[in-house]
């Protein structure tokens, strides 16, 4: 249901060559679990603990019905972020906002501390949103729902061209609904 993200190839971004590749277990588990145990990330992802916690989260998507794909984000070949690209219109999230067919959602985290606080998230979000809209012609919007307390994340989405479309009371958080709509083609 989520297109072959790995087949999208390199995504040019101001920061370098960005690419998503599906997570490989068990090979990527140590890296991901390390990121999930970083206090800044753990505060919002709630996946801190032994690697089995992260593995269950990722494995559920890999073994699922294809609505969500967990990926590593590589910048110039180096893993530096974790992404989930998912069909928001088919996700439980759709019960909490006016979903449209083929809405595509993104979750992300920047792993290494040195990758954060430099505007890199906004650059990569903008590049990925453009690629999603290009690769998925039936998708009219890319959406996200960061925790309202995660101001860095909300600002990154705004700088990437997403607009705040309200707040949502989700089972596990109060979220900012962020939407990046397909721009109309010039006449």
TrEMBL record:
InterPro entries: Acyl_CoA_acyltransferase, Acyltransferase_MbtK/IucB-like, GNAT_dom. One of its GO terms (molecular function) is N-acyltransferase activity. Pfam families: Acetyltransf_8. It comes from the Bacteria. Residues 18-186 form the N-acetyltransferase domain. Pathway: Siderophore biosynthesis; mycobactin biosynthesis. This is Lysine N-acyltransferase MbtK. GO terms for biological process: response to antibiotic; siderophore biosynthetic process. Acyltransferase required for the direct transfer of medium- to long-chain fatty acyl moieties from a carrier protein (MbtL) on to the epsilon-amino group of lysine residue in the mycobactin core. Keywords: Antibiotic resistance, Transferase.
């Amino acid at each position: 249901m989520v297109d072959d993200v790995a087949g999208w190839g390199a995504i040019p971004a101001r920061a370098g060559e960005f690419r998503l590749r599906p997570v490989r277990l068990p090979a990527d588990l140590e890296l991901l679990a390390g990121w999930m145990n970083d206090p800044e990330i753990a505060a919002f992802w709630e996946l801190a603990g032994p690697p089995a916690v992260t593995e269950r989260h990722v494995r559920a998507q890999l073994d699922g019905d294809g609505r969500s794909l967990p990926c590593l984000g590589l910048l110039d070949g180096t893993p530096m972020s974790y992404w989930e690209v998912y069909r928001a219109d088919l996700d439980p999230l759709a019960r909490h906002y006016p979903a449209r067919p083929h809405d595509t959602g993104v979750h992300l985290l920047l792993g290494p501390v040195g990758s954060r606080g430099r505007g890199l998230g906004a650059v990569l979000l903008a590049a990925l949103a453009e690629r999603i809209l290009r690769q998925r012609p039936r998708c009219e919007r890319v959406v996200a729902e960061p925790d309202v307390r995660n101001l860095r994340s909300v600002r990154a989405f705004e700088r990437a061209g997403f607009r705040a479309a309200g707040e949502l009371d989700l089972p596990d958080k109060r979220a900012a609904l962020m939407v990046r709509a397909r721009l109309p083609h010039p006449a």
